[in-house]
């Protein structure tokens, strides 16, 4: 058995253990497995990164079918980095769920493990149809998690979540089906460069991208996210913030590099959409009334900071720098937003509310909680000494390298949107952490350490990402190098003698 056979383990292990926890009534064992499984996938992700750094991209076809046939998994340093970071967020979110008693619900743990199954599969699949399947594997447990408490507000938000994601999934599978009808394949490697000028293929991939963008919460299909995520529990929102939207980021990066071949004709459209999304996400949080609804718009604000880098992927070093900057910001955003969401969850668990108007004076009552929130706010805005500074500096530098109108527009928008994020964070700080001490709660009531530690752990990660910024940049550039090495990816996925691969030259008639 070759080493690539380990790739299905990332999917099979959490799925099998999910079945075990669904049948097992022992809560302590289930809680242990809820932490152990993401920890194992985290460790395997670190190993996968080091192995692919030395040996290049690896791939495995289930059943050992010939290249181009069967269910393909592939891994390079880019996918390995994403696996590691998603598992860090999943581990801390489950940690908080255990502390908050959410795992008392009989099926909470198996649902989160099925979600981890889908995330792992989506980050490793080399096939667009199987990506759709893994997205559905992610969504099915998510429907249950977001509605688990059964309150009217949560059920109402679950309905919106289901409707939006069903519509997006329908559009996704329609695009994949249309693509197969045109090109005769949905294998990512087999479609190398297929959308770079081919009209019908571009239309099919456009449907796929719109569906993925909707799941990522990008303008103009973003409004569902700040309405649904905050209505879930803090642990579930922490899971969703680091997993759902970032899986979409991963696939958009992969599609842009491999299938679109970084076609520069789409750069202006990307910039326009992402600039509007930045501004909406930066300022819309000023009108929200709970801490987590404000943070939900910081999720909307963060996505375009990442995806706008696709418009700066010119040939050569520019593409490498821009994609590495986007990846750095992705990792920062996953960690920082997760920390802020879990920190707000700690406040909600203690005081029974996350409504801004009902809270005040927490800086004196809970100085450690206030410190973690302030650190997360600094990181979101881009202040030192946290990962947000490095993330935004690299984004600005990548945009500046264009040395044309794009640079001016994007940098100006980054400054304005960051100012909006600063105002949102200052509003929460002023209303919740400053002000008079709350009289309706006894002075002895404080946020307990078991609620605070998960968010503190993530903020320590953010601090370490700032301290070891050079090493983080090396990791990101190496990961992007593997993403850009399309030859290695294609060879690993398809093998030396693939079958069922479309003749892309026959599609030339559709190119314009």
From TrEMBL:
> Which superkingdom heads the taxonomic lineage of this protein's source?
Bacteria
- Residues in domain NADH:quinone oxidoreductase/Mrp antiporter transmembrane? 127-412
Residue intervals passing through the bilayer: 32-50, 81-100, 107-125, 131-149, 161-183, 203-225, 237-260, 266-287, 294-315, 321-347, 368-387, 407-430, 451-473
Pfam families from the UniProt entry: Proton_antipo_M (PF00361)
How does this protein lie in the membrane? Multi-pass membrane protein
Q: Name one GO cellular component term.
A: plasma membrane
Q: Which GO terms of type biological process are on file?
A: ATP synthesis coupled electron transport
Q: Where found in the cell? A: Cell membrane; Membrane
- Family per similarity comment: Belongs to the CPA3 antiporters (TC 2.A.63) subunit D family.
What NCBIfam families does the database record attribute to this sequence? PRK08375.1-5
Protein's name in the database: Cation:proton antiporter
Q: What is the lineage of its organism?
A: Bacteria, Bacillati, Actinomycetota, Actinomycetes, Mycobacteriales
